[in-house]
Amino acid sequence: MPDLFHSDIQGFILRTYAMPALRVFALKIDEPRAARRFLGRLVDTGHTPQLATATDWTVKPQYCLNVGLTYSGLAALELSASSLASFPKEFAEGAVARAERVGDTGESSPENWKGQFASLDVHVLLFLFAQPEDVLESITRQIRALYCEGGAMSEVSVHEARSLPENKAHFGYRDGFAQPVIEGGLPPVMPDVLPKAPAGEFLFGYPSQYQDFSYPVPQPDPLGRNGSFVAFRILAQDCHGFEQFLTRAARQTGLDRELIAAKLCGRWRNGVPLSLSPQAPGEEIPLEKRNSFDYAPSSSVPDAFDDARGYRCPLGSHIRRMNPRSSVVAGGGGLKHRIIRRGLPYGPPYDPSSPDDGLERGLLGLFIGVSLKDQFEFLMSDWANKGSFAPGLRDTKDPLLGNNSNSRAAFLLPVEHQKRAIELPGMSRFVTCRGAAYCFLPSATAMRYIASLSQ
Amino acid sequence: MGLFHFGAKGTPENGAPESGARENEPDTTRKPVQSPLTLIMTIRSPEDFETLSVRIHEIQSLPPEQNPIWKALDKLKIVHFARFVFLENNTKLAIITTYDGSFDDYLNEFIDEIGDVFNALLQHMKDAPPLPVQRNRDAFGDYVKANDLGAIEPFYSAYPQATVLDIQAALNDG
After folding, report:
1. Which of A228, A226, A218, A227 is nearest to A80 (CA)?
2. Helices within A288-440 (DSSP H only)
3. What ipTM was estimated for this complex?
4. Where are the domains of chain A?
5. How far apart are CA B161 and CA B29, in angstroms?
6. What is the pLDDT of residues B14-48, one digit of tens each?
7. Would you call A210 an interface residue with chain B, using a CB distance cutoff of 8 Å?
8. Which A positions 372-401 lie with beta carbon below 8 A of chain B?
9. CA A443, CA A341: separation in Å to the nearest integer?
10. Quick count: other Cβ atoms within 10 Å of Cβ A199?
11. Which of A20, A177, A286, B17 would give a disulfide with A291, using CB separation of 3.0 to 4.6 Å?
């Protein structure tokens, strides 16, 4: 397949920016014509700031700006009824209406969301990634001036995230290993041994991962082609609860606390997968090898250990649920529900010496794919919050992401030569959704198209 | 892994704590993970029935490793049982199955594996969705839903918590 039209595609779909700061602006459109002009300015060369596309970098820029539009945002921009009707149902319904399906219930339900994400007022999300803080501030000033021009948009809320040392997330795991490599895309930062994902799994206008099928392009074509979707989520993490659970589970089982942490995630906290190093953290395994594994012998890894029962990496662990690779799963689609993960942690690092500091910490997560229903929602509803997709999981859920608020929630830890898995009771919901939005990620052409509606 | 031990969680039988269960948490252990499909398709004409009948018998007389329906269902690992029955004086074809999960969840995988069989069957059906089903996935899903008689609830299962994958893994445990 020839290279994709990189300069038309939003950069963070195809590339990891590896920038330490992220500021997300949630905006409400007040003046549609001025808002359309604002979007046009971001793709009109000669102006600053510019939309970050996937064009090759000769020099890494100091900031990258990306744009997401909710369904109510597209309506507020005055797209035609026929155009709005061409978007998929799950996007039109939005994150609030779809909350129950993805497990955003109880504490995670929209009535508890912050930043007015539960309202229909979030129309536009601007994602500003930056390298030095002063650039973050100066671009912020410029963007604010631009979206205030002509009363185009008003700020609903602003959300900050900053990277933690060693690329770790708040539960202490090194993150960012598994990302799909897209046909015609950019070379990956971290090598991925799995088959390349067809472009149509992540962009409108190309053949998808399913036979003889491309996801219908939202209409008109210049609006939809080269676009994608993102589920933006503010995910609070209960680090203290998680660490307490590990302590209790270690006491209950006599197993090493860090081994239990690895069994829950599927990786040791340094990112080494249990599949490559089942007994010890395997520090000697270089970073670029920490994603080169499979759970069964496959065309990608013919000599992989056949871990059908999860003796190395439990079938219910976080990374095996979210990306079962060549594992046997219901429907056989272990490689067909991949997702691009971007985002950064928010809040200060967890300090075990002051566990009850009352500070919220978590992740501003971006989960990108051409179908919210078949990718993000499928992962959450079928693989994170059910156990029926793989053998022997009963009704357990993802130990990190799942809705484990039920008092019977447990994790099953299979052990070789033992008839029954060790059951670790006393899970709780370690990750709570504090806000979410489904956004269309328009191409540069689409933003020009929207701007042209002013004419 | 003791996959035949499907005892309700929280019972002494499996060693989980008896106390501490919050009130009002529904007991979902008898709600089957399996679902019934009773798909009744109306055949367009007696001539269509003749062609269809020949085609289905051809497929079903193949050895299992060559039968495209068996091969597909073996790969999908979500269908417990499946059978074809002609009904109402050969004016209708029923496909009756018991499968795991919800039809929507695995629609894409289902179409990828068995879409061509449905392309062959549906060309003889009244009010068939646009073909091929691979390119008209939502329409195929809507057709199946519209023509699925389901069951008069509740749907009985002797092993409500066991999926195809659970059962096969348990049998392989020996």
Report:
1. A218
2. 318-322, 378
3. 0.92
4. 6-235+438-452, 237-340+360-435
5. 7
6. 333 333 444 455 566 678 999 999 999 999 999 99
7. yes
8. 374, 378, 381-382, 386, 388-392, 394-395
9. 19
10. 24
11. A177
